[in-house]
């Protein structure tokens, strides 16, 4: 990546931090995740499993990420009410009524708060649940998994490490090669189409889509 591209990436992401979250770019509504028992595996084993299934690391540095607002009050101003409920209060979205459950374009799904790349369309699949579902993150170290007890069951919550935002849950009923289903709220994500990766400062991730068809399942 050239110096000019670095400047462009910083400018685009800074603009996103200042405007896109505040204006409610996703426009999603509040929803509820499917309730399924978590697999019997301790968090350390889960993390080791994901580390063996991650994408090759990009050859260039990750583009500049947004700094978190200084206070919860500022974050509340920048997010739509629905986004705030999902990210900060761990609420969930209605199935089949959110931005990305049926999105078939190729591209990156990034943290709506920080811009950190989290998931790729090449790992997205139709789970039939009505939520965006992926069988692995781009890099396991960008997410944190926590055991939680809610709705009368034990589940594994998935959070973004960079923003400490609630993303969704992970289950063990996904397709190979991981056998996992990351069930993620659209409100926690921003989609960057494959054709806009360079413009948005994510050009180093283009290799993920080089052998992919024009649309995902």
What does the model show?
With 217 residues, this protein is α+β, with helices and mostly antiparallel strands. It has one domain: Beta Complex (Metal Binding Protein, Guanine Nucleotide Exchange Factor, Chain A), CATH 2.170.150. It contains 5 helices and 9 strands; from the N terminus they run H-H-H-H-E-E-E-E-E-E-E-E-E-H. Strands 3-4-8-7-6-5 form a 6-stranded antiparallel beta sheet. Strands 2-1-9 form a 3-stranded antiparallel beta sheet, with no helix packed on it. The longest helix has 18 residues. The protein is globular, with a radius of gyration of 16 Å. 42% of the residues are buried. The N terminus is likely disordered.
Unreliable stretches (pLDDT < 50, length at least 5) are 1-16, 18-41
Report the mean per-residue pLDDT as an integer: 77
CATH class: Mainly Beta
Largest sheet: 6 strands, antiparallel
How many helix segments? 5
* Subunit organisation of the chains: single chain
The CATH superfamily is known as Peptide methionine sulfoxide reductase
CATH fold assignment? Metal Binding Protein, Guanine Nucleotide Exchange Factor, Chain A
Overall helicity: 10-25%
- Give the beta-strand count: 9
Q: How many separate structural domains?
A: 1
Query: What is the overall shape?
Result: globular
The CATH architecture designation is: Beta Complex
Rg is: 16 Å
Structural class of the helices, strands and pairings? alpha+beta
Distance between the termini: 31 Å
Strand order of the largest sheet: 3-4-8-7-6-5
């Amino acid at each position: 990546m050239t110096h000019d591209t670095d400047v462009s990436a910083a400018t685009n992401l800074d603009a996103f931090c200042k405007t896109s979250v505040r204006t409610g770019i996703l426009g999603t509504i509040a929803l509820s995740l499917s309730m399924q028992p978590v697999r019997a595996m301790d968090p350390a084993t889960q993390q080791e499993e994901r580390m063996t299934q991650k994408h090759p690391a990009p050859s260039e540095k990750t583009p500049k990420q947004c700094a978190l607002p200084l206070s919860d009050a500022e974050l509340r101003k920048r997010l739509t009410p629905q986004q705030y409920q999902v990210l900060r209060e761990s609420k969930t979205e209605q199935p089949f009524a959110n931005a990305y459950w049926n999105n078939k374009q190729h591209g990156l799904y990034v943290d709506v708060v920080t811009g950190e790349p989290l998931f790729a369309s090449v790992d997205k699949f139709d789970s039939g649940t009505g939520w965006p579902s992926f069988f692995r993150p781009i890099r396991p170290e960008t997410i944190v998994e926590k055991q939680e007890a809610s709705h009368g069951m034990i589940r594994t919550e998935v959070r973004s490490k960079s923003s400490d935002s609630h993303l969704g849950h992970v289950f063990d009923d996904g397709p190979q090669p991981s056998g996992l289903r990351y069930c993620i709220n659209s409100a926690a994500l921003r989609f960057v189409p494959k054709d806009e990766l360079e413009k948005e400062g994510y050009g180093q991730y283009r290799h993920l889509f080089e052998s992919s068809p024009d649309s995902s399942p």
